[in-house]
Protein backbone atom coordinates (compact mmCIF):
# COMPACT_ATOMS: atom_id res chain seq x y z
CA UNK A 1 0.00 0.00 0.00
CA UNK A 2 1.07 3.59 -0.47
CA UNK A 3 0.41 6.77 1.44
CA UNK A 4 -2.42 9.02 0.23
CA UNK A 5 0.13 11.80 -0.31
CA UNK A 6 2.46 9.63 -2.45
CA UNK A 7 0.68 10.59 -5.68
CA UNK A 8 -2.35 9.57 -7.76
CA UNK A 9 -4.12 6.64 -6.10
CA UNK A 10 -5.36 5.14 -9.37
CA UNK A 11 -4.35 5.39 -13.00
CA UNK A 12 -5.96 4.64 -16.34
CA UNK A 13 -5.53 0.90 -15.82
CA UNK A 14 -7.62 1.00 -12.64
CA UNK A 15 -10.24 3.26 -14.23
CA UNK A 16 -10.55 1.04 -17.29
CA UNK A 17 -10.98 -2.02 -15.07
CA UNK A 18 -14.26 -0.39 -13.97
CA UNK A 19 -15.21 1.18 -17.32
CA UNK A 20 -13.62 0.01 -20.58
CA UNK A 21 -15.30 2.82 -22.55
CA UNK A 22 -13.48 5.55 -20.63
CA UNK A 23 -10.66 6.25 -23.16
CA UNK A 24 -13.13 6.57 -26.03
CA UNK A 25 -15.51 8.84 -24.07
CA UNK A 26 -12.64 11.04 -22.89
CA UNK A 27 -11.28 11.33 -26.43
CA UNK A 28 -14.64 12.09 -28.08
CA UNK A 29 -15.69 14.61 -25.42
CA UNK A 30 -12.27 16.20 -24.96
CA UNK A 31 -12.01 15.37 -21.25
CA UNK A 32 -8.61 15.49 -19.55
CA UNK A 33 -8.66 12.39 -17.34
CA UNK A 34 -5.31 13.31 -15.77
CA UNK A 35 -6.84 16.54 -14.53
CA UNK A 36 -9.78 14.62 -13.06
CA UNK A 37 -7.35 12.35 -11.20
CA UNK A 38 -5.81 15.41 -9.58
CA UNK A 39 -9.12 17.12 -8.81
CA UNK A 40 -10.63 13.95 -7.30
CA UNK A 41 -7.63 13.52 -5.03
CA UNK A 42 -7.93 17.13 -3.86
CA UNK A 43 -11.60 16.57 -3.05
CA UNK A 44 -10.92 13.35 -1.14
CA UNK A 45 -8.10 15.05 0.78
CA UNK A 46 -10.57 17.64 2.09
CA UNK A 47 -13.18 15.01 2.96
CA UNK A 48 -10.62 12.76 4.67
CA UNK A 49 -9.27 15.71 6.65
CA UNK A 50 -12.81 16.38 7.89
CA UNK A 51 -13.21 12.74 8.90
CA UNK A 52 -9.86 12.74 10.70
CA UNK A 53 -10.73 15.89 12.59
CA UNK A 54 -14.06 14.50 13.71
CA UNK A 55 -12.96 10.93 14.32
CA UNK A 56 -10.49 11.26 17.19
CA UNK A 57 -11.39 8.82 19.95
CA UNK A 58 -10.08 7.50 23.24
CA UNK A 59 -8.28 4.54 21.66
CA UNK A 60 -6.40 6.81 19.28
CA UNK A 61 -5.42 9.15 22.13
CA UNK A 62 -3.66 6.21 23.84
CA UNK A 63 -1.59 5.25 20.81
CA UNK A 64 -0.93 8.62 19.18
CA UNK A 65 0.09 11.83 20.92
CA UNK A 66 -1.02 13.95 17.97
CA UNK A 67 -4.11 13.84 15.83
CA UNK A 68 -3.39 12.13 12.50
CA UNK A 69 -3.43 14.26 9.37
CA UNK A 70 -3.77 13.47 5.69
CA UNK A 71 -0.01 12.69 5.72
CA UNK A 72 -0.73 9.65 7.94
CA UNK A 73 -3.39 8.14 5.68
CA UNK A 74 -2.60 4.85 3.94
CA UNK A 75 -4.41 3.87 0.73
CA UNK A 76 -6.54 0.84 1.58
CA UNK A 77 -8.65 -1.06 -0.99
CA UNK A 78 -11.82 0.76 0.12
CA UNK A 79 -10.15 4.16 -0.22
CA UNK A 80 -8.80 3.25 -3.66
CA UNK A 81 -12.26 2.23 -4.85
CA UNK A 82 -13.80 5.42 -3.48
CA UNK A 83 -11.26 7.47 -5.40
CA UNK A 84 -11.63 5.44 -8.60
CA UNK A 85 -15.42 5.75 -8.65
CA UNK A 86 -15.20 9.48 -7.83
CA UNK A 87 -12.95 10.06 -10.85
CA UNK A 88 -15.35 8.17 -13.14
CA UNK A 89 -18.29 10.12 -11.75
CA UNK A 90 -16.47 13.38 -12.53
CA UNK A 91 -15.61 12.27 -16.07
CA UNK A 92 -19.19 11.31 -16.92
CA UNK A 93 -20.50 14.42 -15.18
CA UNK A 94 -18.40 16.51 -17.57
CA UNK A 95 -19.48 14.42 -20.55
CA UNK A 96 -23.16 14.90 -19.66
CA UNK A 97 -22.72 18.65 -19.15
CA UNK A 98 -21.22 18.88 -22.63
CA UNK A 99 -23.77 16.79 -24.57
CA UNK A 100 -26.78 16.38 -22.23
CA UNK A 101 -26.70 12.73 -23.28
CA UNK A 102 -28.90 10.52 -21.09
CA UNK A 103 -26.43 7.65 -21.43
CA UNK A 104 -23.73 9.82 -19.85
CA UNK A 105 -26.15 10.86 -17.11
CA UNK A 106 -26.88 7.21 -16.32
CA UNK A 107 -23.17 6.40 -16.10
CA UNK A 108 -22.57 9.47 -13.91
CA UNK A 109 -25.33 8.40 -11.53
CA UNK A 110 -24.08 4.80 -11.54
CA UNK A 111 -20.57 5.83 -10.49
CA UNK A 112 -21.97 8.31 -7.97
CA UNK A 113 -23.77 5.42 -6.27
CA UNK A 114 -20.66 3.24 -6.49
CA UNK A 115 -18.57 6.02 -4.94
CA UNK A 116 -21.04 6.29 -2.07
CA UNK A 117 -20.93 2.51 -1.63
CA UNK A 118 -17.11 2.53 -1.41
CA UNK A 119 -17.25 5.47 1.02
CA UNK A 120 -19.59 3.49 3.27
CA UNK A 121 -17.17 0.53 3.18
CA UNK A 122 -14.37 2.89 4.19
CA UNK A 123 -16.37 4.10 7.18
CA UNK A 124 -17.22 0.54 8.19
CA UNK A 125 -13.64 -0.74 7.91
CA UNK A 126 -11.86 2.41 9.08
CA UNK A 127 -9.25 4.75 7.64
CA UNK A 128 -5.77 3.24 7.38
CA UNK A 129 -3.30 5.20 9.53
CA UNK A 130 0.51 4.97 9.64
CA UNK A 131 1.99 6.21 12.92
CA UNK A 132 5.33 7.16 11.32
CA UNK A 133 4.59 7.72 7.60
CA UNK A 134 7.42 7.20 5.14
CA UNK A 135 6.80 8.94 1.79
CA UNK A 136 7.51 7.44 -1.61
CA UNK A 137 11.20 7.77 -2.45
CA UNK A 138 12.23 10.21 -5.13
CA UNK A 139 14.32 8.92 -8.02
CA UNK A 140 17.94 8.50 -6.83
CA UNK A 141 21.02 9.59 -8.72
CA UNK A 142 22.70 6.56 -10.29
CA UNK A 143 26.14 7.04 -11.87
CA UNK A 144 28.91 4.89 -13.24
CA UNK A 145 31.74 4.01 -10.85
CA UNK A 146 34.89 1.90 -10.90
CA UNK A 147 34.03 -1.77 -10.60
CA UNK A 148 33.58 -5.07 -12.40
CA UNK A 149 29.83 -5.44 -12.85
CA UNK A 150 28.88 -7.35 -16.01
CA UNK A 151 28.25 -5.06 -18.97
CA UNK A 152 24.57 -4.41 -19.50
CA UNK A 153 21.56 -2.23 -18.77
CA UNK A 154 20.27 -2.14 -15.20
CA UNK A 155 17.21 -0.68 -13.51
CA UNK A 156 17.53 0.74 -10.02
CA UNK A 157 14.88 1.67 -7.45
CA UNK A 158 15.11 2.69 -3.80
CA UNK A 159 12.82 2.91 -0.76
CA UNK A 160 13.03 4.76 2.54
CA UNK A 161 12.54 3.08 5.94
CA UNK A 162 11.63 4.60 9.29
CA UNK A 163 13.13 3.73 12.68
CA UNK A 164 10.84 0.68 12.94
CA UNK A 165 12.03 -0.59 9.52
CA UNK A 166 8.62 0.13 7.94
CA UNK A 167 9.23 0.62 4.23
CA UNK A 168 7.72 3.31 2.05
CA UNK A 169 6.76 3.06 -1.61
CA UNK A 170 9.57 2.61 -4.16
CA UNK A 171 10.91 5.32 -6.41
CA UNK A 172 10.61 5.37 -10.17
CA UNK A 173 13.26 3.13 -11.74
CA UNK A 174 16.48 4.76 -12.90
CA UNK A 175 18.21 3.20 -15.92
CA UNK A 176 21.98 2.89 -16.30
CA UNK A 177 24.16 1.02 -18.79
CA UNK A 178 27.55 -0.19 -17.59
CA UNK A 179 30.64 -0.90 -19.66
CA UNK A 180 33.66 -2.03 -17.67
CA UNK A 181 32.27 -0.40 -14.54
CA UNK A 182 29.60 -0.68 -11.86
CA UNK A 183 27.17 1.93 -10.51
CA UNK A 184 26.85 4.12 -7.45
CA UNK A 185 23.43 5.02 -5.98
CA UNK A 186 23.01 8.40 -4.26
CA UNK A 187 19.59 9.10 -2.68
CA UNK A 188 18.12 12.56 -2.60
CA UNK A 189 17.67 14.22 0.79
CA UNK A 190 16.02 11.92 3.32
CA UNK A 191 12.45 12.91 4.25
CA UNK A 192 11.33 13.34 7.85
CA UNK A 193 11.21 10.04 9.82
CA UNK A 194 13.40 8.21 7.27
CA UNK A 195 16.44 6.69 8.95
CA UNK A 196 17.68 4.24 6.31
CA UNK A 197 17.01 2.94 2.81
CA UNK A 198 17.01 -0.10 0.56
CA UNK A 199 18.24 -0.42 -3.02
CA UNK A 200 16.65 -2.70 -5.62
CA UNK A 201 18.25 -3.54 -8.96
CA UNK A 202 18.01 -5.93 -11.89
CA UNK A 203 18.11 -6.26 -15.65
CA UNK A 204 14.30 -6.26 -15.86
CA UNK A 205 11.88 -3.84 -14.17
CA UNK A 206 9.62 -6.81 -13.39
CA UNK A 207 12.39 -8.73 -11.63
CA UNK A 208 14.17 -6.30 -9.30
CA UNK A 209 15.75 -7.66 -6.10
CA UNK A 210 17.00 -5.98 -2.95
CA UNK A 211 20.79 -5.69 -3.12
CA UNK A 212 21.66 -4.68 0.46
CA UNK A 213 21.58 -7.29 3.23
CA UNK A 214 20.77 -4.70 5.92
CA UNK A 215 19.27 -1.20 5.65
CA UNK A 216 21.69 1.48 4.44
CA UNK A 217 21.89 4.44 6.88
CA UNK A 218 20.50 7.72 5.56
CA UNK A 219 23.32 9.87 4.24
CA UNK A 220 25.32 6.93 2.88
CA UNK A 221 25.63 5.84 -0.74
CA UNK A 222 25.51 2.35 -2.25
CA UNK A 223 28.26 0.96 -4.50
CA UNK A 224 26.96 -2.05 -6.41
CA UNK A 225 29.24 -5.13 -6.01
CA UNK A 226 30.49 -7.13 -8.98
CA UNK A 227 27.23 -9.07 -9.32
CA UNK A 228 23.53 -8.23 -9.05
CA UNK A 229 21.72 -10.30 -6.44
CA UNK A 230 18.67 -12.05 -7.89
CA UNK A 231 17.39 -13.82 -4.77
CA UNK A 232 16.52 -10.78 -2.71
CA UNK A 233 13.02 -9.54 -1.94
CA UNK A 234 11.19 -7.49 -4.57
CA UNK A 235 10.13 -3.89 -3.89
CA UNK A 236 6.77 -3.67 -2.17
CA UNK A 237 3.86 -1.30 -2.71
CA UNK A 238 4.54 0.86 0.31
CA UNK A 239 3.71 1.15 3.97
CA UNK A 240 0.90 -0.81 5.58
CA UNK A 241 -1.41 0.87 8.11
CA UNK A 242 -0.61 0.42 11.79
CA UNK A 243 -4.31 0.54 12.59
CA UNK A 244 -7.70 1.34 11.12
CA UNK A 245 -9.18 4.50 12.56
CA UNK A 246 -12.93 4.57 13.17
CA UNK A 247 -14.51 7.53 11.38
CA UNK A 248 -17.76 9.37 12.12
CA UNK A 249 -20.56 8.86 9.64
CA UNK A 250 -21.04 11.92 7.47
CA UNK A 251 -23.38 12.48 4.54
CA UNK A 252 -21.57 13.03 1.27
CA UNK A 253 -22.59 15.62 -1.28
CA UNK A 254 -25.28 14.77 -3.83
Query: What's the total number of strands?
Result: 10
Give the terminus-to-terminus CA distance. 30 Å
Tell me the overall shape. globular
Low-confidence spans? 57-63
The fraction of residues assigned to DSSP E strands is: 15-25%
Number of domains: 2
Q: Please tell me the overall pLDDT.
A: 92
* Overall SS class: alpha+beta
> What is the N-to-C order of secondary-structure elements (H for helix, E for strand)?
HHHHHHEEEEEEEEEE
List the total number of helices.
6
Rg over C-alpha atoms, rounded to the nearest angstrom: 21 Å
Main beta sheet strand tally, sense and closure: 5 strands, antiparallel
> How much helix, percentage-wise, in residues?
25-40%
Commentary on this structure:
- With 254 residues, the protein is α+β, with helices and mostly antiparallel strands.
- Helices cover 35% and strands 17% of the residues.
- The protein has helices spanning 12-18, 22-29, 33-54, 58-63, 77-99, 102-125, and strands spanning 127-129, 141-145, 152-161, 174-178, 182-186, 196-202, 209-210, 216-217, 222-223, 243-245.
- Strands 3, 4, 6, 7 and 8 form a five-stranded antiparallel β-sheet that branches. The protein has a three-stranded antiparallel β-sheet with strand order 2-5-9, with no helix packed on it. A two-stranded antiparallel sheet has the order 1-10.
- A hairpin with a 6-residue loop joins strand 6 and strand 7.
- The two termini are 30 Å apart.
- The model is unreliable at 57-63 (pLDDT under 50).
